[in-house]
Design goal:
Layout lengths: L2 H14 L9 E6 L6 H14 L5 E4 L8 H6 L4 E7 L5 H13 L4 E7 L18
Parallel strand pairs: 1-2, 1-3, 3-4
């Protein structure tokens, strides 16, 4: 099993256990702007759910800071996951996106941060690290 496949299975499990009192049936994925990896995350998470025979509706919306569609959909979903590109998105933009979702009482269940520099000693990474 690849580390990427395992990471999405862990994400699926974390979502399932994020609230044991209520089932999460509809999950919306959004981002702050285009090309942050939201569609790739959507596809891989859909595969992880399909492999576990879980019936969950995943919804991929336009970026929350681009159009209001994401806010409208978020208010109707059981949970929202925001995908952020660590190399391209400023903290202010991420916070603005979070606030815009909070305004409609969206239930944030997680944030996925893409493109983290794995050579940095500031973060945690599970898996094999290739030496240069």
């Amino acid at each position: 099993m690849s580390p990427i496949s395992e990471a999405y299975k862990i994400l699926r499990t974390n979502i399932e256990f994020s609230n044991v009192d209520e089932k999460i049936q509809t999950i919306m994925l959004t981002s702050t702007k285009m090309a942050e990896g939201e569609s790739t995350t959507f596809a891989n998470l859909a595969v992880a759910y399909a492999q576990s025979n879980k019936k969950v509706l995943l919804i991929d919306t336009p970026p929350v800071l681009v159009v209001t569609d994401a806010q409208i959909v978020a208010a109707q979903c059981d949970g929202v996951i925001m995908v952020i590109d660590s190399g391209r998105v400023k903290n202010e933009a991420a916070l603005k996106a979070k606030v815009s979702l909070e305004l409609v009482k969206a239930r944030m269940i997680g944030v996925i941060i893409n493109n983290i520099n794995r050579n940095s000693t500031d973060g945690y990474y599970y898996g094999e690290r290739k030496e240069k």
